[in-house]
């Protein structure tokens, strides 16, 4: 009996130690955001916009991947989820706002993919807007997508705003493992007026399929089943 109790206590202590070893997203950001912002500013001063954009990918791949999302709160709209602590499945969290128009085709593609993979993945759209504005915009999204929001004028959930909006900017996609591990962060495709409707759709299919593919680390998703274009959508 004593030996069994000892083994149990050692297991608990081991799990606690593993939890303490986890780096939070906020800590990873705090250690690296100043150097990142300085490099971005320098690139912009030199007019090197492409390099400035690439710095986010470098920051994510070298400093932020493998950290764990903080306990963050948001307001429910038509979702049972009000905190990152309530996430139980791998998650794709997209940040939106009414003043930042999504790329043409993004919402239809997102709706289709949420129907296909909603049993394995939680899709969350987080609006930086008032509830009344969200009510109008939410009508565009499939029922499989969780709609949540943070209204900054209410001065609530400011840690969520600071980490998911102010630190890296608008129009982001966060890919989270079932345990909250950050698997990827990307900027969502921008509107490009020189592209055809089919090209815009394909751009969003490729982007969102790659976000889903990142979850392969955490979940048994068949990457070969992911669409690459309208031809396979």
From TrEMBL:
Keywords linked to the UniProt accession: Ribonucleoprotein, Ribosomal protein, Signal
Organism annotation: Leeuwenhoekiella blandensis (strain CECT 7118 / CCUG 51940 / KCTC 22103 / MED217) (Flavobacterium sp. (strain MED217))
First and last residue of the signal peptide: 1-16
Cellular component annotations (GO), alphabetically ordered: ribosome
Protein name (Swiss-Prot/TrEMBL): 50S ribosomal protein L34
Record has Signal as a keyword: yes
Xref: InterPro entries: Thioredoxin-like_sf
Keyword NAD: no
């Amino acid at each position: 009996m004593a030996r069994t109790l000892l083994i149990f206590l050692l297991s608990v202590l081991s799990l606690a130690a593993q939890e303490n070893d986890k780096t939070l997203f906020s800590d990873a950001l705090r250690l690296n955001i100043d150097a990142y912002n300085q490099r971005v500013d320098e690139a912009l001063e030199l007019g090197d916009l492409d390099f400035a954009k690439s710095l986010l990918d470098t920051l994510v791949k070298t400093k932020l991947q493998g950290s764990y999302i903080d306990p963050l709160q948001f307001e429910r709209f038509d979702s049972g989820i009000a905190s990152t602590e309530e996430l139980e499945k791998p998650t794709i969290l997209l940040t939106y706002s009414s003043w930042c128009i999504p790329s043409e085709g993004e919402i239809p593609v997102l709706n289709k993919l949420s129907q296909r993979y909603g049993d394995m993945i939680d899709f969350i759209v987080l609006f930086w807007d008032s509830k009344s504005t969200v009510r109008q915009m939410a009508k565009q999204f499939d029922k499989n997508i969780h709609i949540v929001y943070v209204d900054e004028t209410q001065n609530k959930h400011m840690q969520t705003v600071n980490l998911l909006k102010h630190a890296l900017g608008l129009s982001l996609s966060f890919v989270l493992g079932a345990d909250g591990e950050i698997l990827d962060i990307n900027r969502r495709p921008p509107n490009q007026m020189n592209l055809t409707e089919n090209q815009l759709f394909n751009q969003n299919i490729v982007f969102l399929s790659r976000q889903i593919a990142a979850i392969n680390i955490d979940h048994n998703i068949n990457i070969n089943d992911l669409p690459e274009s309208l031809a396979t959508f």
